[in-house]
Specification:
The structure is a homodimer. By secondary structure, the first copy, chain A, is of the alpha+beta class. Chain A has two domains: 3-311, 2-Layer Sandwich (BirA Bifunctional Protein, domain 2); 324-406, Anticodon-binding domain (Rossmann fold, 3-Layer(aba) Sandwich). Chain A contains eleven helices and 23 strands. In chain A, the strands form six sheets. In chain A, strands 3, 7, 8, 9, 10, 11, 12, 13 and 16 form a nine-stranded mixed β-sheet that branches. Chain A has a five-stranded mixed β-sheet with strand order 20-19-21-22-23, sandwiched between helices. Chain A has a three-stranded antiparallel β-sheet with strand order 4-6-5. The two termini of chain A are 17 Å apart. The interface between A and B is large, with 59 and 59 residues.
Chain lengths: 407, 407
């Protein structure tokens, strides 16, 4: 794509109210725009990143045998009353009356809505397991949303729900989803990620698990072992930093700030019991199914990537989710020809074709953070200057060499 | 995919309250589920159709140079007040106060939100045209939603917005989008579709255009020429059925029922003026940009397809948006082997592997409506019985022949 045609361009200054790094860099780079506090447009450049994050998560969910669908966002009060969450989750839910006095909530999660659909169809053990997920908007009544796209009044969520004959089958799939989450987060580009034990909040009495990315700017505090996989969050940790790990006995407990990018909930039979969901087992007996839910916020993932991967010049996107494969800067006449050839070779390239100074083009390139920078100028002749975003090394390559390294 | 693993299965009876054909067949086939009146889950089978419709629309929007993004659904009252639509569109908008007394609307369209983002970035004529679109949920306060997925309290919408230096450039792009819409609707499988002149409703004072699919069950009434492209909707038609066409003079005016699947609005400067959106032209003068918007409801498109393409046994999906390429019915032992080979060859196949009667499998296959039915049985030996959904002809093919016809 030609940068001259992209809406919008970069901006020099971050908005005054932007406190967090992701807010500052994503707005300056033209990735997102703020409608109001906690409410974001993913502009074309940001949408490309969001789509790549989404597609990686989709692929990993599908490997677990889960099926994609799409559920409504406006929910009747009656369904939320069945589990009591109309009252217990009132603080986080937007609730309102329509002009005819009927009461609704905006989706902050979908357990009740999934259970309602499941009970219409579930008859026999042969119908289980059920594994369904969607990418959809969630709303949370946030009094002060100050963390950029990390925390909003509304945000994108991938939520998966699974229904099982018994606890054993639920946990078998639960750990399979855990593995799929870890694969997704690695593919997205997170390096320091912990599976952290946590409490269930308004979801369940059981312990649940969070996926926490270590980040200095993180709002969460977690405790983890420096030797094994043991980790707990602040809500449930009951020990001292520096003590021996209760799990392996060899390592020590460390403390760190972190950002939660996903969570998984082994809900058990709480929702099925309250909502009257049953199935008939092989012996013809009526049984209560086990239920679990699993969330990842793709928009939050984008913000987290910026928090952990940037420098003083701008964002440094991992290759797997970068908005383009390469950023081509044209400083001489034959840049358009190079752009055309790169596109024909199948390279997804952003071409800065504007009539602005070289300095401005280089600064915007660093701000936008595409992993590979290519420069065509008088100096490079019939070659291209190749430079990675996170390195100062430059080399001169032929077009063919550049294409081979990119594809 | 194995049908035994798909959630949910078909159901014999339509819900009692289901008045429309799309409601009856989509629920019976397991494509959609109703949460409440006018509120639908697209279940895995229905989501596949929705995704294919969406992808065709996306491809055609991209050919016009439009850029995909994603905008918020919760909007502050202040923005809707700038154009006066907080009051004039009050009847269709869900409006509510949060717990802190702040007033919001749920998105029923996005003109104001787009204009707010555009005015933050638009400086010069060099920034124009801007062409941005998204697929997102829309909400409408519908008192009685009785048309299945055709009319809902919430639904999926592709809305595109374009901003231009002048009226001429706006109309140039307007007609280009019209062509892209026509291509999209043809690819989706609509045969009888009319471009119909209409009034602008709460959007604009100008005449707009609707894309109307001729359908006996349609709620709309349109008038069209039996010779040329002339067509008007009921709101603005001021003539008699049977009279000479005012456009070509050769044809006669006919009347028909129809379903609206898309609309395009040449909004002009109304929104830019009210919201203070400007740009600087080549002479350095401050100018008001021209604005247009363009909508297609992909969920409504799915319902319309069912209304115009079904028989007494079930749905007849066009090939381009069918949930699978082929429906394989296994009545003998080697069906699993055939299924595996079809998948390996790249055929997206639904394999009915259940232990139910042949009659039930054939009935479900007709209800679900995948274009190609393949049967493996004792009778077919090492071949496959090939039958199209909309034909009674059967032929015996080798696996290789079947694959070649499918790909």
């Amino acid at each position: 794509m030609k940068y001259s045609q992209l809406f919008p361009k970069t901006q020099r200054e971050a908005p005054k109210e932007a406190e967090s790094i992701n807010h500052q860099l994503l707005v300056r780079g033209g990735f997102v725009g703020q409608l109001m506090s906690g409410s974001w447009t993913f502009l074309p450049l940001g949408f490309r990143v969001l789509q790549k994050v989404t597609q990686i998560i989709r692929e990993e969910m599908n490997t677990t045998g889960a099926q994609e669908m799409l559920m409504p966002l406006l929910h009747p009060k009656e369904i939320w009353n069945e589990t009591g969450r109309w009252d217990t989750a009132r603080e986080v839910m937007y609730q309102f009356k329509d002009t005819r006095g009927r009461e609704f909530a905006l989706s902050f999660t979908h357990e009740e809505i999934v259970m309602d659909e499941v009970r219409k169809h579930l008859r026999s053990y042969k119908d289980l397991p059920i594994k369904i997920y969607h990418f959809s908007t969630k709303f949370r009544n946030e009094p002060r949303a100050k963390s950029g796209v990390l925390r909003g009044r509304e945000f994108l969520m991938k939520d998966l729900y699974s229904v099982h004959v018994d606890e054993e089958d639920m946990y078998r799939y639960y750990w399979r989803v855990k593995d799929a989450y870890m694969r997704a987060f690695k593919r997205i580009g997170f390096e320091d990620i912990k599976l952290t034990e946590a409490s269930g909040g308004v979801f369940t009495d059981k312990h649940t698990h969070e996926f926490q990315v270590l980040a200095e700017s993180g709002e969460d505090t977690i405790y983890y072992c420096n030797e094994c996989d043991w980790s707990q969050n602040k809500e449930i940790f009951d020990g001292l930093v520096g003590q021996d790990c209760p799990e392996c006995g060899k390592g020590k407990i460390w403390q760190a700030h972190s950002i939660e990018v996903g969570n998984i909930f082994p809900l058990g039979t709480r929702y099925s019991e309250k909502m009257g969901v049953f199935y008939t087992d092989e012996q013809g007996e009526r049984k209560i199914p086990y239920f679990a839910s699993y969330g990842i916020g793709p928009s939050r993932v984008v913000g987290t990537l910026v928090e952990v991967s940037h420098d003083d010049k701008g964002i440094v996107w991992p290759k797997s989710v970068a908005p383009f494969d390469a950023h081509l800067i044209g400083l001489s006449g034959n840049a358009l020809e190079v752009y055309t050839k790169l596109k024909e070779a199948g390279v997804d390239v952003l071409f800065d074709d504007r009539e602005v100074s070289a300095g401005e083009k280089f600064a915007d390139c660093d701000l936008i953070g595409i992993p590979v920078r290519l420069v065509v100028s008088e100096k490079t002749g019939d070659r291209l200057e190749w430079k990675l975003r996170n390195s100062e090394d430059k080399e001169l390559l032929t077009l063919e060499q550049a294409v081979n390294k990119l594809l």
